[in-house]
Amino acid sequence: MNKRRLLFCLITVLVLVAIGACMMVIGRGHTIYFDNKSLEYEGQKYEAIRRINVNVNGEQVAKLSKKERGMATTMGQGFKFDIEVIREKDAEPERYSFDIRIPYGIDGIVVNLPGMIAELPQAAWMEEFIPAPTVEEEEDETPAEGDVMDDFGVGGDL
Amino acid sequence: MSDISNNAATTPLERIQSAFRSFGLPRLIIAGMLLVLLIAAPFVGANFWMQITNVLNRFTWNGVLVLAMVPMVHSGCGLNFGLPLGIISGLLGATLSLELGFTGAASFLMAILLSTPFALVLGAGYGWLLNKIKGGEMMIATYVGFSSVSFMCMMWLLLPYHKADMVWGYAGKGLRTTISLEGYYDKILANFLQIRLGDLVIPTGAILFFALLAFLMWAFLHTKTGTAMTAVGSNPVFARAAGINVDKIRLLSVVMSTWLGAIGILVYEQGFGFIQLYMAPFNMALPAVSAILIGGASVNKATITNVVIGTILFQGIVTMTPTVMNNMIHMDISEVLRMVVSNGMILYALTRKTEVTR
Amino acid sequence: MKNQTSAGKKVLGFLGSNSVPIMFIIIVAICIPLSGFSPVFLINEIITRMGRNIFLILSLLIPIMAGMGLNFGMTLGAMAGEIALIFVSDWQIWGIPGVVLACIMSIPISVLLGWMCGKILNASKGREMVTSYIISYFTNGLYQLLVLYIMGAIIPIIHNSIKLPRGYGVRQTVGLLTMRQSLDNALAIRVAGVKIPVLTFLIIALMCLLIVWFRRTKLGQDMRAVGQDMEVARDAGINVERTRIISIIISTVLAGFGMIIYLQNMGDMATYSAHSQIGMFCIAALLVGGASVDRASIGNVFLGVVLFHLMFILAPKAGGVITGDEMIGEYFRVFVSYGVITVALVMYETKKRRAKAGMAAQLEAAQREEEQQ
Fold first, then answer.
1. For the residues of C74-90, what is the DSSP string, one character each?
2. Residue B305 belongs to some domain of the structure
3. What is the DSSP letter of C146?
4. Domains in chain A: ranges and CATH
5. Which residues form the domain of C180?
6. Among A28, A33, A32, A34, which Cα is nearest to A105's?
7. Which of A19, B131, B156, B183 is the most exposed place for a label (fewest CB within 10 A)?
8. Longest alpha-carbon distance in chain B
9. Could you tell me the pLDDT band of residue B2, with boundaries at 50, 70 and 90?
10. pLDDT digit string (tens) for B189-242?
11. pLDDT > 70: what percent of chain C?
C-alpha cells in the first residue's frame, strides 16, 4: 500500500513536471520585429522594398513602407508568417512564406525582410532586439510601511 | 514541541536547560539581537547615546498601549486584539478636546477626561460581548477592532467637526488623516522635567507618567478586586466556586483595558506629535501584543515587568535595526524583520500548549 | 391553527438562519436604483467577478469541513501563486501555458506553506482562526523578505521591467499583460452584450464537482469526522493531526490556483498588497452567502459572490448619492466586510457556548437523576 502510494506520488510529480516543461516550451513568448530596411551583407546591398504586407495566420499584422518596422508576438519557438511583396505600384504581389526558429533565450528578435527574401543565411537577417535602456530616476520604489500593512484595501478593486 | 518540561531537573545541565526553557528561546534570541545591535551601533558609526534616547522615547510612546494588555490577560480574556476600540475612544477624546478649543497642557488633560466616557461605554459594550463568547475572545476581539476602525472611518468624515486646522481645507468638513499637535499637547509629557546629558535626552515626564500608571496597575492587581481578577484568569471554575462574579470581573478588566488603550494613544500622540485618524489604529494592536509577549507574558499571564521589558526589547529592535542595518549593509530590512519578529512572537505564544482553552 | 403557527415558526426559522443573505439582498435592492447603473453593466461586472473570485472562495470550504474554521491562512496560497507568477512573468511564458505553469509552480510552495500552517494550527487547537490569521501576517513578512531582498539578489530575475532599479527586489506592480484574461477570453461567448468566460466557469464547475466527490472519499469522510469531534475521530482510528494538515494543504494549494486565476483576470499584480486583502474579502463573501464558521456549501459560495460583489460595486456610488461623498461608500463597504465577519464569528461562538451549556445541563440532570435513585 505504502509503496503504491509512493509510486503514485512520484508519477504525479513527474507528470506535473513534464506538463510544466512542456508549458515552458510552448508558452515562451517572443516579440518579432519586421524591418523593411536596406541591408548590407558581404559587400552587397539589399534595398528596402516599396511595400511589404506581413500576415500571420492569415491576419495582417503590418503594412510596411520603406524604412518601417512592424511587430508581432508569438508563443513557442517556431514562427510562421507570410509576406506580400509589392515592388512597384500596382504590381502583382509576390508571395513568400517563412518558417523561422527563434532561440529560446531571446525575448525579442528583429528580422530584416529584404535579407530574408534574398535568402541570405540566418545570421544576416536575424538579430536580437535590445530595448533602449530607459533612464530611470532613482526613485525609491520599495513599499512604504503603509502599503505593506494596508490590510484595508480602500479603493482597491476586487 | 516542548512537552518534556519535567520539573525534576537533577543535573546542573538539565537545570540550565529548564531555565532556558522557562525564559523561552524566542525571547532569548530577541534579547541577544538587541545586545548585538547595541554593541554594533558605535562601530558602524551610529551615535550610541542618540540611539538610547530614541529607544527611551519610543518606550514612553508605546508603554501605556502595552500596559493596556495587562487587565484582559489577567482576567483570562486573552490578548487584547481589540485595542483599536480603546484607541478610538482616545482619538474621540483628542479631537473633541481640540475642537473645544483647549490648548497646551489643558488639551491633554481634557483629552483624557473626554475620552474616558467613550472608553467606559465602548469598553462596557465590548466586555459584554466578550462575556457572551467566552473561549473565542481573541478572534472576535480582532474583528471588533477592525469593524470599529472602519466604522469610525465613516464617522470622521461625517461628524460635524469644524476647527480649521483639523478638517480638510477645501471642503471645510471631514477630519484630516493626520492632525498636527503643535500648540496643543505635542511633547507635553516628554518636555516636562526633561534631562539633557550631551546626546542623551531623558523624557522624564513621560517616563514618570508611565511609571504612575504602571504603579497604579500594580497596586490594583494587589487589591481584593485585582486578586479576584487573577483568580478568574487562572481558574474560572475555582473563582466561581469562591463566590466571585466572573462576568463582572471580566467586564471590569475589558473596560480597564479599553480605557488604558485610550490613554495609551494619547500618550503616543504627545510623543509622536500628530493625531492619526482613519486607518492608523488598524494595526496598532499587533505591535502592542507582541511587545508584551516578548516581555515574557503568555496568553493568560502578564506582569508589569513583562510590559517594561517587552516594550524596551521590542521598541529597541524596531528603532535600532534601521540605523544599524543601514549603516552596516545599506539595506533596510527592518520593516520586514519587524513583521517577522512580532508576528512570530505572537504565533509562538499562541502555540504554547499549557493554555489551550477548550 | 396549529398548522399556521408551525408554518410561521418555519418562516421565522428560515429568516433567522438566513438573516445575513436576506439583509444583503435588502441592501442591494435599495442600492441598485440609487446607483443608476444599467442592468447590462451590472450583470457584466458580476459575471466577471464571479469568474475572478469563486475559485479562491472554494478553497475555504475544505478547512471548514475539517472543523478548522475560516482559513485566514489562505493568504499563504495567494502568496505562493504570486511568487509563481513573478517567475513565470520573468521567464516570459505567456497566455494559457503561462497560467498552467504558474499553477504547477505554485503547488510545491503552497504545499510547503500549507504544511507549516497545518503544523502550527495543530499546536494551537481551539484557536485555529486567530492563529491562522497571525500566520498570514507572519508569512507576509517572509514573503516580503523573499520578494524584496532575495529575488534579484540571490534568485536571478532577468528582466528590468520586474526588478527594482536598485538591482534587487521586485517592483510594486508586476505586469501580467501577456496572460491577461487568457483563460477568460478562451472560449468566451457574448450574450446580449454580456461576456461569459466559459473556460473559467468550466474550471470552476470542475472544481465544484471535485469538492462534491472529495466529500465522499475516505479522506473526506475522515475530515468530516474530525470536524465533528476530534476525540471521537481519534478513537475511531483516524490520524487527526495528519487529516487536519492535509485539509490545510489542499486549501492552500487551491487558494494558490485561485489567486492565479484572479490575477490573470486583473492583468497586473500589486506585488506587496494583492494578497493582504484577499483573505478578508473572500471570507466576507462566503459569510454573506449564508455560510457559518462550521458549515459552508458550494451554494453559499455562489450566492455570496453575487451579493457581496453587488454590494461592493454599488456601495461607493450609492454612498455618493446619499451623502454626497463617494469615500463614505468605500468606507461603508469595508465596514460591512468586517462587520459581517464579526457578526458571523459572534453567532458561531454563542451557538457553540449554548450547545456546550445545553450538554452540561443534560449531564447535570442525568447525574442528579442517578443520585436520586
1. HHHHHHHHHHHHHHHHH
2. yes
3. I
4. 29-128 (2.60.40)
5. 2-372
6. A28
7. B183
8. 74
9. very low
10. 887 878 888 778 888 888 999 999 999 999 998 998 888 888 888 888 888 888
11. 98
- C-alpha dist (Å) from residue A102 to A112, A122, B158, C22: 14, 11, 61, 58
Q: Residue B1: pLDDT above 80?
A: no
Sites in chain A below the pLDDT cut of 70: 1, 133-158
Give how far C271 is from chain A: nearest CA, Å.
10
Pick the residue of C45, C72, C91, C104 with the most A CBs within 10 A to test the interface with A by mutation: C104
For the stretch C272-300, pLDDT in tens is: 888 888 888 899 899 888 888 888 999 99
Count of structural domains within chain B:
1
Which positions in chain B touch A154 (Cβ < 8 Å)? 153, 279
Interface confidence (ipTM) of the complex: 0.82
B236's CB contacts (< 8 A; 6+ apart) are: B76, B246
Task: Indicate whether B20 belongs to any domain.
Answer: no
On whether any CB of chain A is under 8 Å from the CB of B339, the answer is yes
Distance CA C68, CA C126 (A): 9
Is residue B237 less than 8 Å (CB to CB) from chain C? no
Q: Supply the CATH number for residue B334's domain.
A: 1.10.3470
Chain B interface mutation, best of C349, C350, C353, C356, highest count of B Cβ atoms under 10 Å = C349
The interaxial angle of helices B104-132 and C326-372, nearest 10 deg, is 40
* Residue among C53, C92, C165 minimizing CB distance to A28: C92
Show the cell assigned to C246: 492535509
Provide the domain limits for residue B291.
Answer: 26-349
Distances (CA, A) of C223 to A3, C125, C220, C234: 24, 15, 5, 11
Identify the CA nearest to C223 among candidates C63, C330, C347, C59.
C63
Higher pLDDT, C175 or A90: C175
Query: CATH no. for residue C226?
Result: 1.10.3470
CA atoms within 13 A on the CB side of A76: 9
Average pLDDT, chain B: 83
Task: Tell me the three cell numbers of residue A54.
Answer: 506581413
Helices of type H across chain C: 2-17, 19-35, 39-58, 61-65, 74-90, 95-122, 128-144, 182-185, 198-216, 218-228, 230-235, 240-266, 278-288, 298-323, 326-372
Contacts of A22 (CB under 8 A, 6+ apart): C97
- Decide if C244 touches A, using CB distance below 8 A: no
Going B247 to B252 to B256 to B258, the CA torsion angle's sign is positive
C-beta atoms of B282 and A148 within 8 A: no
Position with higher pLDDT, C26 vs A132? C26
Which of C331, C321, C286 minimizes the C-alpha distance to C306? C286
Give the pLDDT of residue B12: 73
CB contact under 8 A, C273 and A157: no
Neighboring chain A residues of C49 at a CB cutoff of 8 Å: 158
Q: Which chains touch A (3+ CB pairs under 8 A)?
A: B, C
Residue B314 predicted with pLDDT over 80: yes
Domain tally for chain C? 1
Q: Going by C-beta distance under 8 Å and a sequence separation of 6 or more, which residues neighbour residue A87?
A: A49, A50, A94
State the smallest CA–CA distance between residue A133 and chain B in angstroms.
25
A145–B335: do the CB atoms touch at under 8 Å? yes
Residue in B with minimal Cα distance to A149: B283
In order of B102, B193, B270, B275, C243, the CA distances from B182 in angstroms are 12, 19, 10, 11, 58
DSSP per-residue letters across C322-362: HHS-HHHHHHHHHHHHHHHHHHHHHHHHHHHHHHHHHHHHH
Rounded Cα distance, B77 and A58, in Å: 71
